[in-house]
Amino acid sequence: IFYGMLVLKEALIIMLDKIPTHNEIENLLSPVAFANWQALCKFIEAQYEREQLGNKGGKAGKYEYKYRRGGKTLCALYLGENHLGFMVVLGKAEQQKFEELRNTFTATVQRLYDETHPYHDGRWLMLDVSAKLNIEDIERLLHIKRRPNKKHLNT
Asked: CB-side exposure of 133: number of CA atoms within 13 Å?
C-alpha cells in the first residue's frame, strides 16, 4: 500500500500544478528516505484525523507535504533529491512540555532543540530523516503537539 500524496485524495488539498506520482516520489528520494516517507505517512495517518496539503517545498525541498488538524499544522514533510525532512513547530506551551520530557528524546533531538532559535511563534525543529528514522522521537514530538485522535490499530 502506498501512503502519502495519493491516499485519500478527497482529504488532500493540492497547491501544486501536478500531483507527483508514486514513481516520481520514489525516484526523487533515496530508497531509505522513501521507506521512511512511507513509514511516517502510515504512522501519522493511523494516529490522526487530518487534512493534507501538498505544495512546493521552497528551500527545504521540491515538495512540501503538510498535515493539518483543527486548522493548525501538525507537521510537515519535505521531499527533495535523496532527502526527506520532518518539521514540527513547538509553541511556548509545547516547549515547556518538551522540557518536561527532554530525557525521553534521543541526544540528536535534544541537541537540535537546543540549537534551534526560539522565534515568537515557537521553535521550528527540522529533522533530517533521509537515512535514519527514529519513529519514537517523531511520535513523542507529535504527541506534544497534538494528542492522537484515532485509536491505534496494531495491523
From this structure: 20
Whether the model pTM is above 0.90: no
Q: Which cell numbers hold the place of 122?
A: 515557537
Tens digit of each residue's pLDDT (9 = 90 or more) over 27-78: 999 999 999 999 999 999 899 888 888 777 677 777 888 899 878 899 999 9
H/E run at residue 134: none
Query: Which residue reads 503537539 in cell numbers?
Result: 145
Of 33, 27, 21, 46, the residue nearest 155 (C-alpha):
46
Write out the DSSP string of 24-93: HHHHHS-HHHHHHHHHHHHHHHHH---EEEEEE-GGG-SEEEEEEETTEEEEEEEEETTEEEEEEEE-HH
